[in-house]
Amino acid sequence: MFVVGGESLIDLISEPVGADGVIRLVAHQGGSPYNCAIALSKLGNDTGFLCPISTDGLGTYLLAPLAEAGVKPLLGERVEAYTTLAVVTFDARKSAQYGFYRNADRAFTREGLIAALPQRLEAFQVGGFCPIEPEDAGVWLDVAQEAARRGATLTMDPNVRPSLVPDFAGYKQRLSSFLGIVNLVKVSIEDLASLEQNRAVRATELTAAEVEALVEKYTADFLGRPNCELVIVTFGEEGSRAFTRSGSARQDVYPAVPFGDTVGAGDTLMAAVLTLLNEQGNLKPGRLGAMGDAALAKMLRFGAVAAGLNCQFVGCHPPTRAEVDAVLAD
Fold first, then answer.
1. According to CATH, what is the number of the domain 2-7+32-75+110-329?
2. Beta sheet of 153-156, edge-to-edge order
3. Measured distance CA(318)–CA(307) in Å, rounded
4. What whole-number percentage of the chain has pLDDT above 70?
5. Does residue 7 surpass a pLDDT of 90?
6. What is the 3-state composition of the chain as percent helix, strand, coil, each rounded to the nearest 5?
7. Mean pLDDT in the chain?
8. Minimal CA–CA distance to 31: which of 54, 18, 19, 23?
């Protein structure tokens, strides 16, 4: 089983109404780990989701897509805390920007999370919110290490959100602890720039030279750690790149026609990457680091197609495996 641990929430996505500047907020189920779990299941994987779900109406709303996709909620008892909210707006390039109001996603205990883990699992994906709060980070580190003891390859998509973090220096130390145990990490160029500059940074603020310097610095940092063997960096409309000690590759985006928005694109790419790696037998320590240029290129192509198909919709709507395979067969 694949297990994804971390936040679920409601995305309140802004949509313009008329020409007078009024907007409305439309509720969509979301959260990076939640999206990734659904994408994994729709791509044909046995998937569990490790996150508290509220007893409120929005919690019920969150459960429906999990059930439809075949994802197993691993925490059976729902919590009284209100569902976490994210308010989503878009810039001129239709890139999503977020403000967060956290509640139910933090209503857990160390004992409850560990008890909910399957006895055997192929991979454990660490959610982006896990390092944000000091008390949460310690719990999630223990959960991830227990998952590794049960056979899981550890993966992470940090989704760096400076607006959520009052103590960014402390956050970076906590994130570093997670990066010290994971075998695979996916980051965006904005994640790297935010880590470097201690603030939220858009890709459009960076020169080509700055981008290359960031990629070189952080790829060397991550791959220099004892457990990390594969680093994937996404660049929005500029595509993605992958690095191991044995090779590298780059991939353009698969164009979304029609275009909806980019919500969940990175989560879908991550799920697709994990799916293909597992099928190839490469989702294992030792095998990840041995991947060369050709294997990395095939992996990124699969991920790009899945992410592009997701971007045909407003909100996160990952494709099925049949939809991805149909594109790759053309």
1. 3.40.1190.20
2. 72-73, 47-50, 2-5, 123-126, 153-156, 184-188, 230-234, 240-243, 248-251
3. 7
4. 98
5. yes
6. 40, 20, 40
7. 94
8. 54
Cα 277 to Cα 298: distance, rounded to the nearest angstrom: 10
Give φ, ψ of 200 to 5 degrees.
-70, 130
Sheet holding 9-16, edge to edge: 23-30, 9-16, 85-90, 96-101
Alpha-carbon span 105 to 263, nearest angstrom? 19
DSSP 8-state assignment for residue 127: P
Separation of alpha carbons 244 and 238, rounded Å: 20
DSSP strands (E only) in 193-300: 230-234, 240-243, 248-251
Residue type at 86 in one-letter notation: A
Buried-exposed string 286-322: b where 16+ CB fall within 10 A, e elsewhere: ebbbebeeebbbbbbbbbbbbbbbbbebebbbbbbee
- Beta bridge partners, 186, equal 232
Residue listed under structure tokens 């029609």: 258
The predicted model scores a pTM of: 0.94
Domain ranges of the chain: 2-7+32-75+110-329
More confident residue, 120 or 16: 120
Average pLDDT for 184-192: 97
CA atoms of 268 and 181, how far apart (whole Å): 23
With H, G, I as helix, E, B as strand and everything else as coil, classify residue 330.
Answer: coil
What type of residue is 52?
P
pLDDT at residue 13, rounded to an integer: 82
Quickly state the pLDDT bin for 98 (edges 50, 70, 90): confident
CB atoms within 10 A of CB 162: 15
Q: Which amino acid is at 123?
A: A
Structure tokens at 196: 């470097």
Q: pLDDT for 229-271, tens place per residue? A: 999 999 999 999 999 999 999 999 999 999 998 889 999 999 9
